[in-house]
Amino acid sequence: MSKFIIAVLVLLVVTTGFILWQRNNGQWVIKPFGPEGSLGRWSSEQQVQEERPLDKYTIDALSKTQVRASAITLGKVIEARRDSTFYVFYFDVEGKKVSGLANVPKARGEYPVIVMLRGYVDRETYTMGAGTQRAGEVFAKSGFITLAPDFLGYGESDMPSENPIEERFQTHTTVLVLLESIKNLNTTFAENNLAARAASDQIGIWGHSNGGQIALTVLEVTGRSYPTVLWAPVSKPFPYSVLYYTDDFDDRGKMLRRTVADFEKDYDVELYNVTNFFDKINAPLAIHQGTADDSVPQKWSDQLVDELERLGKDVEYFTYAGSDHNLVPGGWNSAVSRAIDFWVLDMGKI
Fold it and tell me: Does the predicted model carry a pTM greater than 0.70?
């Protein structure tokens, strides 16, 4: 046998003995032989493992991600009122188009911007502006620009991830990009010959129900002091915050429970839980809750406020006797008026 062939055989033996590809938790990793000449006994730090797809959505990972602003474009007019005009607007999130409803005052001037985050609406019955349009009309009349994203899969937006867990996390990245993109809004207004201008350093958030949980997550990720108004926010940890509602599903939540179980098998759910990061919130908050709410129990908001106060956060709390999840019949007008006063006061401090 030639020396060349012998050398090749030795190289193959050494290489095979040093590296072995092995399946581990659904990932292919490289594991060298241990000191005793057998596999194992190596710490996880010594394994070379690719990042898993949903790792980038942990609260910590999102807080370290550099969010890139998108251009904002205006589409058709949905409704022209005496004081303001509703437009379809669009922006991009990681290569996907997201639509939404913008309400822009007609009068010349510079206006603060409120990002409005709705609660859950069934995709089959959703219409643009559902859950935000009525309040947005009052806010615009009172001197605010409002932006209400539809989220992926709704309105004229592109479809979200096929993974329902990732679809949930994409609502967070959608809002993060929109907030960063507000600085481009005046370019859009000028191109469309609008008289209004956005005060891009004066941004507030309004969130209802699940939109409240999105808002809390965004406040944790950014650490920014966006004055935030929450109506009946979902403030319980994931996945309980989702599984609580599965009785309303056609299959009683069987498919969702399987999906959540698969997620929990591969990921540490605590790294995604809004309740674990309240200490990162630096924004003033005003929370509004109806006592007759059968979608978000009052005790959830009671507990949320108690925890925020324990952490020394700036929080106001209003309850409305006999009012439901939408703060009707007795709370809606008061809640809208208080939201306006809250933003005017807190934006004056920015």
Answer: yes
Which amino acid, residue 120?
A: Y
What does the domain layout of the chain look like in residue ranges?
3-50, 56-347
CA–CA separation, 327 and 289 (whole Å): 7
Structure confidence by residue, pLDDT tens digits, 256-306: 888 899 999 999 999 999 999 999 999 999 999 999 999 999 999 999 999
Query: Cα–chain-centroid distance for residue 288?
Result: 20
Residue 304 is which amino acid?
L
Q: Is the dihedral of CA 22, 25, 26, 28 positive or negative?
A: negative
CA distance 121 to 143: 28
As a whole number of angstroms, the distance between CA 128 and CA 105 comes to: 19
> How far is it, in rounded angstroms, from Cα 71 to Cα 175?
14
Q: What is the 3-state secondary structure (H, E, C) of 303-320?
A: HHHHHHHHCCCCEEEEEE
CB atoms within 10 A of CB 44: 8
Say how far apart CA 54 and CA 142 lie, in whole Å.
40
> Could you tell me how many helices (H) and strands (E) the chain has, helices first?
10, 11
Q: Give which of 70, 110, 102, 61 is closest to 84, Cα–Cα.
A: 102
Q: Which helix (H) or strand (E) holds 3?
A: helix 3-18
| Rounded distance between C-alpha atoms, residue 172 and residue 149, angstroms | 11
The domain 56-347 belongs to what CATH superfamily?
Alpha/Beta hydrolase fold, catalytic domain (3.40.50.1820)
**Cis amide linkage into residue 284, ω under 30° from 0:** no
- What confidence score (pLDDT) does residue 101 get? 98
337 is written with which tokens? 């008026």
Which residues, 6 or more positions from 172, have their beta carbon under 8 angstroms from its beta carbon? 57, 62, 214, 217, 218, 221
Integer angstrom CA distances of residue 63 from 58, 183, 217, 272: 8, 20, 10, 12
Phi, psi (rounded to 5 degrees) for 78: -85, -40
